[in-house]
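We emphasize that the prediction below concerns an isolated chain of 211 residues; any contacts that depend on oligomerization or on bound cofactors are therefore not represented. The input was used exactly as deposited, without trimming of termini.
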Amino acid sequence: MRLALTQQRKRVPFIGTFAAIASVLVMGLLGPGTVANATPARNCECATPSIDRLQQWIASGEGTTVPATGSLLVREGSRYTAKVEFLNVEWHVVVVWLANQFEAQVDLGKSSGFWMTYSATDDLYVQLRPASHWSGGDKWLTLVPSTGGKVVRKFFSFSPNAWMTLPELGTPSYSFASALREARGFVFVGKTPNKLQFRGLHIDGYRPPCL
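Result of the prediction step, given as a token string:
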């Protein structure tokens, strides 16, 4: 976490089987990128707050957000939701550590993508940040479209064609395939006011370790 905070101070912009079968069946029926209101099968959650076993949902302190820093997880009934609001026209940064600690990394080279259940009042992006190139804004990213504030479930493919760069943030010096092989975290970034909720994030073929 100390390393992540060091990056933030620089102010660089931005920063089991059943469930798998069910996911594949739904993908086959709906197709990649389909938005649906279906509720995904959920992994057994961790003993501490988590969403699909992901325990670290963090407001980085970059951009004006509510909360400004710290965990986004709030309890809603028997489950947790990650909630954050982006304020002002500036880059905002929210971090999810894929193995629940900053020092770890995950090989997602054989994963087809991830299902996310979320709501957003405006478009934003999610960056895939590798361990070897964590800092800076020059990352591979994909659009997370606005849902008009409605909670939806959407599949995000790990096909290279689905990921891009933004001239404002720079072009990464490494390939998207290499980023998948040493994935450290998802970083959600947006430059406009936005009200966000995350209720699910299930990565194909990967079960995060509870810490």
